[in-house]
Amino acid sequence: MATMLNGAAVMDAALLLIAGNETCPQPQTSEHLAAIQIMKLKNILILQNKIDLIKESAALEQHEQILKFIKNTVADGAPVIPISAQLKYNIDAINEYICKRIPVPVRDFSSDPKLIVIRSFDVNKPGADVASLKGGVAGGSILCGVLKLGDEIEVRPGLVTKDADGKVKCRPIFSRIITLLAENNELKFAVPGGLIGVGTKIDPTICRADRLVGQVLGAVGKLPAIYTEIEINFFLLRQLLGVKSTDGKKQTKVEKLAKNEVLLANIGSTSCGCRVLSVKADLAKIQLTTPACTEVDEKVALSRRIDKHWRLIGWGKITRGTTIDPDV
């Protein structure tokens, strides 16, 4: 679930994939639809997959289940396209709908560049010669502004450490853009929209195995503040999605937030643990276990540990918080 929320932070539209050989909705389907609603994605396409494995009557029956499931939700009225990914049936219809029916959002090219990192890599092969080593690569989507080859960049929060007194310190990473890639295409500059790979001079061990996920990359000195505590205006779901009560008949209700409770917070592409410091009506003060580079009005998804799984329980919006100054 956390992975899906991290990816949804940079999406303009959503494809909700439903297996045709299973009843609808499955627990994960309910959670993903709720996540789409949290991220306020308006352009939604529902794909009824694996229709090659079922009879026509079963496909029609599930189609009715899907329509009932999405009624009065953000996906109400979204087209349902029967497909077979294995046989590539109706894939052309999906492509046509995306190209012709989903509008390209208005992009901001004039603001300072800001990219949310959702992947990071070490592209060097084991045993590579020192002279041929390449810097780490950060992958993500540009939210605003334009990145160009040779630009000086900053990555926040950067390297997070604690001093002898247990106080958190953040040291941003400074580097230069060496390469820009979209798929296999080399670019001289990159604009908002699509996924971009940014080649840098950053130590590749820092970028290895997605270690930069959740960081924000952009122009030096122009990135949002680093928060250790946030105050949010939150909304809880009425019921837990995909979790049955002990009698197995109906979904259990979402319990109210409790002081000192440990939750999982998703802010942009950042997933971090957090502790509830105080709750008053629909306002909560939360301490983050890992500092996050974010800003006021940013969306926050909240998950609670239930039966060894993190389950989505609600979402909120940052109203203010406690920031720390980075060590430069």
Automatic annotation (TrEMBL):
**Which InterPro entries does this one have?**
EFTu-like_2, eIF2G, eIF2g_C, eIF2g_dom_2, P-loop_NTPase, T_Tr_GTP-bd_dom, Transl_B-barrel_sf, Transl_elong_EF1A/Init_IF2_C
A Pfam family matched in the record? GTP_EFTU
| EC annotation from Swiss-Prot or TrEMBL | 3.6.5.3
Cleavable signal peptide: 1-23
Recorded GO molecular functions are:
GTP binding; GTPase activity; translation initiation factor activity; tRNA binding
Please tell me one Gene Ontology term that the record gives under cellular component: eukaryotic translation initiation factor 2 complex
Enzyme class, first EC level, given as a word? hydrolase
CDD domains xrefs = eIF2_gamma_II, eIF2_gamma_III
Question: What keywords are assigned to this protein?
Answer: GTP-binding, Hydrolase, Initiation factor, Nucleotide-binding, Protein biosynthesis, Signal
Q: Which residues belong to any copy of the Tr-type G domain? A: 1-106
The biological processes this protein is annotated with in GO are:
formation of translation preinitiation complex
Catalytic activity as recorded in UniProt:
GTP + H2O = GDP + phosphate + H(+)
- Protein family according to the UniProt entry: Belongs to the TRAFAC class translation factor GTPase superfamily. Classic translation factor GTPase family. EF-Tu/EF-1A subfamily.
For this entry, the protein name equals protein-synthesizing GTPase
Natural source organism: Chytriomyces confervae
